[in-house]
């Protein structure tokens, strides 16, 4: 019995020991697992913080997540590490940094963690190939941190390495006219600058700045702002203006440098079309990550539309260089590609002549080849000086442009207007095509005003000449509103609109600038009055001069309407036939008589030895019938025998002397120049 008790006690002790061992083992396992999870979390946080700070370029915070021992071993202080990152990343203009492939894995053998990740970034040379990194995360002061080395700036780097950028700037391509003459070229010019040290001090400095301000038309406040920029030192050359004309003038404080600048030989004559270049803004860089501060890009016109092709691609290399071993490692390399040359259909001489003719007026001139659509001139007046824009226009001069009520920045050749009586050619063609209009059909019209019936109330269609019997030819020669109003009503809204749709109303042309589509009406022709008004070119009809010119090409091209073309390298859309050759020639014969007959509205356009076909137009701008108002004048003209040009010119009435007569007077010398 005693032996049995002894044995039971032994079993109890063994059981207690087993339970105690299991409890201790469980507690140890729990502690170990909990500690391991905590360590892993801290290691991941260190990795996330470190790579995020690189991504955001918060280099001052990097030392929070790297071990002090690793910095010491690498030979860096926290401040030196921060400065190294700043120097390298700023030097190559690193931005848009992305972190990918981030992994943190435990190394059981060494009881630490292995960190791997990749960085992608955009530099001065564009997008750099993905760079792969690896590092160790170890415990220090009860925290897990990155063991930092210089190869975490770029793979393979050591302390004595430097990162260098070499660039090979691409040359901007030219914009040329059809004959190869430059419309936008690169030219060596003098750049005016101030060296602060040379200005003197106190009153002398103020006096010198005042003299410079007066000479170069730059406010003193603007000069002082340029001189106070953060990068300016006492002996720094601070650019203030580019001289596109004239010779350098020696002045105290002023120095000169020769630079290559964009230059526009036609300047104002082609400003709206060609546009100009300028330095990139912060918004430009935000929109296009491949742009860098200081880059020159197209700001307006074709310079802007074709900017990517014109600008080309800068070449260069980003290297890791060791000054001791002279070893170089290429991080990024680009071959330079100069910008393309854009050759236009524009003829410089025609462009300049047309602009000279419009000088002092508010208007436009469009010249197109009616057989192939080549645009020979696109002129808008008034204009602005593109070379002044490139040279550095003062805020005061720019304000003069923006405050000008004549809107010098508006490209009038692409702006919609009521076309007036030039549009009667289209109404005649539509009527001939659908059988409503007959060339010899006579309409008997009494007086200078007419209305369909009393339902029109006080509204009348008016005309200038009291001709009792009028046929289609007479109506085009004398520009009879009443005749075409009656023809439009005779066709009816459906037939009339069906005919007009063949002229691409509502369609956009494939041109490198903005232009709203031509419209027949705001919301359909819903009244007889609107139908009548539309038939003679008023109502709610809106067409730009380019759209008018295109719509009138069939009369010079046997019924075929060509589409406008501006870039010689691009194919124009195939021509269409909105009318038969017979219809086109019938209208053309009448337009020749509008010039040849003494009573014709375009008779002053006669040129000996040439059969000019023309149609004038006057679009009235007034609030209601019966009151006086301004009149925009239009001129359609082409050679009926050799149709290698078609002109659509327009002059806005801004001072009460509008109408088509003024347009003929201004544009006849331009048309005469075609025959010299």
Automatic annotation (TrEMBL):
Pfam families referenced in this protein's UniProt entry, alphabetically: MecA_N, PBP_dimer, Transpeptidase
Main localization of the protein described in the UniProt heading: membrane
UniProt keyword list: Membrane, Transmembrane, Transmembrane helix
Gene3D superfamilies in alphabetical order: DD-peptidase/beta-lactamase superfamily (3.40.710.10), NTF2-like, domain 1 (3.10.450.100), Penicillin-binding protein 2a (Domain 2) (3.90.1310.10), Penicillin-binding protein 2a, domain 3 (3.30.1390.30)
Molecular-function GO terms, alphabetical: penicillin binding; peptidoglycan L,D-transpeptidase activity
Residue ranges of domain Penicillin-binding protein transpeptidase in the record: 363-659
Gene Ontology process terms (BP): cell wall organization; response to antibiotic
InterPro entries: Beta-lactam/transpept (IPR050515), Beta-lactam/transpept-like (IPR012338), MecA_N (IPR007887), NTF2-like_dom_sf (IPR032710), PBP_dimer (IPR005311), PBP_dimer_sf (IPR036138), PCN-bd_Tpept (IPR001460)
Subcellular locations according to the entry: Membrane
Regions crossing the membrane: 12-33
Domain (NTF2-like N-terminal transpeptidase): residue spans on this chain: 43-160
CC terms in the record's Gene Ontology section: plasma membrane
Sequence ranges assigned to domain Penicillin-binding protein dimerisation in this UniProt record: 168-327
Family indicated by similarity: Belongs to the transpeptidase family.
UniProt cross-references to PANTHER family, sorted A to Z: PENICILLIN-BINDING PROTEIN 3 (PTHR30627:SF25), PEPTIDOGLYCAN D,D-TRANSPEPTIDASE (PTHR30627)
Annotated protein name in UniProt: Penicillin-binding protein
